[in-house]
Amino acid sequence: MSEWEKPSKAEDEYFARQELERRKQWATEQRSNMAESEKTRLRELHYMKCPKCGMDLVTIDLHGVKIDRCVSCHGTFFDDGELEQVLQRGGGFLNRIGAVFRGSKGEP
Question: What is the full DSSP assignment across 36-66?
Fold first, then answer.
């Protein structure tokens, strides 16, 4: 029997480790792809939908800030930083409301 006919134990272990690493990488890629596709699916399902009633949201302009408003329940929704922008631009009454959100006693 020649040395070319039968792989050594070290060779078997090497190829088994290579195969295991290849399968681990494939599984990781599959999980990542599923996670991305699930994020995309959820984004498409919920984008510009009211979190309260599920109806469509429309973008309106409030003191120069684009905010989202529900056409059904009339809920108004702010993206990150939009409330602060509206409060800064609104003056008077809106500043007093903003003080409530900031935790002060209603003084601007």
Answer: HHHHHHHHHHHTTB-TTT--BEEEEEETTEE
